[in-house]
Design a protein that fits this description.
The complex is a heterodimer of chains A (about 300) and B (about 280). Chain A has helices spanning about 1-10, 15-40, 60-65, 70-100, 105-115, 115-120, 120-130, 140-145, 160-185, 190-200, 205-230, 235-240, 255-265, 265-275, 280-295. With about 300 residues, chain A is mainly alpha-helical. In chain A, helix 4 runs antiparallel to helix 11, helix 11 packs across helix 15 and helix 13 runs antiparallel to helix 14. Helices cover about 75% and strands about 0% of the residues of chain B. Classes of the chains: A mainly alpha (about 300), B mainly alpha (about 280).
Chain lengths: ~300, ~280
């Protein structure tokens, strides 16, 4: 009798369904939601490595607002995100359109294109680090051989060059995500639409503008939103290539907070720096949820 | 005819070739550097794009003078354990949310999805304090437990989409025969969703193989490091860069994940596009 009751209890959809999600909920609550809140709390304390700090209110934030490096970091983060996402979008879309045609070896090409995305970013970044070497760069060698330049390019040693270099590596890594994602969208577009446009004598540009782009828009927005949050909160690529240098010219929020918190030991201040990723995360969540709702 | 071919060259083959050179050159560069001697690497008179004299010295350095094999084993251990933990939790969660359903289940689905958007750069500082308090600092288990925070959201979302494609009638038939939910889950749903599980598994494996920030923050002993972290800290000493062994390490650290990927490329692409379209 009693066991029958407990079966009935479990068979009730509400309880059983929820029970299935408990392992996932537990991990996400304990190791994602809790540290999320703990991070906000830490940013209001003067915690350093090895010592629990006390509440200091907005002190960390006020200190940051008075620091030039912080403002430079904020500027760099925006430049890095806007520059990288813009080119990833343009180039990724371009490659997707190229690959959407019918040609021999299409499957192989699609597999190859994803490689920069699959391979550990830290490892491919080391390769770029070597490609951008100040003395032995193969690009410098080529340009000097061609007579375009007389001295090797100082890729990572000057402010502007270093910023461009890290953005190029980020573009390299991110193109596959845009390409493969958008390719899936392109393949769902009905061919008859293009045929109808051909009959009306539409140019390739008109076809792109009035058929491809509008139909691709929902997917394009979601992919771009993902890319924005990933790029804005990036870390490893810059940390390996420049450590934020030269003269903090490539520090972004992620690398700066690591430098203050882990390398420098100031956990509270580091948490305050990474808190500046929140607004962008929040906006991205809003945009994505708009599209998710529409789908439902 | 000629005109048309020329047009196709400029509109198609040329841009495609440029893209391929850009995307693949770093891999060629890893490969070429790996098999050159130091003499050749730093000789500006030689064409750097070719290998003039093949040499295995860099490989010897990497495999015998650094703990590279140990790092590979560590990375493998973390990738496998975190993938198993994430897949188990995600399978159950996706089934509960998508198939059994309960009050607020769709909201929970969206909530888990949003966890995927939370970047590690926000979490690594508080996690560092937690890892320290839990006394799993400098332990690979810390990574095995923390990686699921970014693997579960993705896998759950992917599997929810996959479960959607399994006809409800199969479950209903089994239920009429008096089968329990757990039995149905294990004997009907799991076998039917093997392709989806494979996609999620490959994704989880590559994502944890590639992780860098947590591995850099939570592990300090050289012998416990993962490939990505170990290479840079051990082979760059101050201003001395051992480019040969570094490139060899980058190449051989990428090979396992590239192999897994090449065997299951279709599943990977299906997983990626499936998750985006949902």
């Amino acid at each position: 009798m009693k066991s029958g009751q407990s079966v009935g209890f479990l068979q009730r959809k509400g309880v059983l369904g929820f029970l299935f999600t408990v392992p996932a909920d537990a991990i996400l609550l304990l190791l994602l939601a809790y540290p999320f809140v703990l991070g906000i709390w830490l940013s209001f304390t003067n915690t350093i490595i090895g010592r629990t700090g006390s509440f200091v209110g907005l002190e960390n934030y006020i200190d940051l607002f008075h620091s030039d490096v912080f403002w430079l970091t904020a500027f760099n983060t925006v430049v890095y995100t806007v520059g990288a996402v813009f080119f990833k979008l343009i180039l990724g879309l371009g490659l997707a359109i190229l690959l959407n045609r019918d040609f021999k070896g299409k499957g192989l090409m699609r597999a190859i294109v994803l490689l920069p995305w699959i391979v550990p970013t830290a490892l491919s970044t080391i390769a770029f680090w070597w490609i951008f070497d100040s003395n032995f760069s193969c690009i410098s060698w080529l340009f000097m051989k061609l007579g375009i330049m007389h001295a090797p390019i100082n890729f990572l040693g000057s402010t502007v060059n270093a910023r461009i270099s890290v953005i190029i590596v980020n573009i390299w890594r991110g193109i596959p995500f845009f390409t493969i994602g958008l390719l899936a969208g392109l393949q769902t577009i009905n061919h008859t639409l293009y045929e109808a446009a051909d009959i009306d004598g539409a140019t390739p540009w008109i076809k792109f503008k009035s058929i491809t782009l509008p139909l691709l828009m929902p997917l394009l927005s979601v992919i771009t939103t993902f890319s924005i949050i990933w790029t804005f909160a990036d870390f490893q690529l810059i940390w390996i290539m420049t450590r934020g240098g030269p003269d903090n010219a490539t520090h972004i929020f992620g690398t700066f907070s690591f430098q203050r918190a882990i390398a420098g030991g100031h956990l509270g201040e580091g948490a305050a720096i990474s808190a500046f990723i929140f607004p962008v995360l929040f906006i991205c969540v809003l945009i994505t949820s708009k599209y998710l709702k529409r789908e439902n | 005819m000629r005109q048309k071919r020329k047009e196709k060259f400029f509109r198609f083959y040329l841009p495609l070739a440029l893209f391929l050179i850009f995307l693949l050159f770093p891999f060629y560069w890893m490969f070429a550097t790996t098999f050159k001697s130091d003499m050749e690497l730093y000789n500006l008179k030689l064409n750097p794009f070719l290998i003039h004299h093949w040499s295995l010295l860099n490989l010897k350095h990497l495999f015998f003078q650094t703990p590279f094999l140990r790092w590979l084993a560590n990375t493998f251990f973390v990738a496998i354990t975190s993938t198993i933990i994430s897949l188990s939790a995600s399978l159950l969660a996706a089934y509960g949310i998508q198939r059994i359903r309960f009050k607020g289940s769709s909201l929970m689905g969206i909530g888990i999805f949003f966890c995927y958007l939370v970047p590690p750069t926000i979490l690594f500082i508080p996690l560092a304090t937690m890892v320290f308090k839990l006394r799993i600092w400098d332990s690979l288990w810390a990574l095995s437990l923390i990686y699921p925070t970014f693997l579960i959201p993705f896998c759950t979302w992917l599997l929810m989409g996959y479960f959607n494609s399994i006809p409800k009638e199969l479950e209903e038939c089994a239920m009429m025969d008096g089968a329990s939910r757990l039995w149905i889950f294990w004997r009907v749903i799991v076998p039917l969703s093997l392709p989806g599980i494979l996609s999620a598994g490959i994704f989880a494996f590559t994502l944890s193989w590639n992780e860098y920030l947590y591995a850099l923050t939570f592990i300090s002993t050289s012998l416990k490091k993962t490939v990505s972290v170990g290479l840079v800290t051990e082979l760059v000493r101050g201003d001395v860069y051992h480019w040969g062994p570094l490139m060899a390490g980058a190449l051989f650290g990428s090979v396992p994940v590239a192999l897994v990927y090449s065997f299951f490329v279709e599943y990977y692409v299906a997983g990626m596009t499936g998750a985006l379209k949902e």
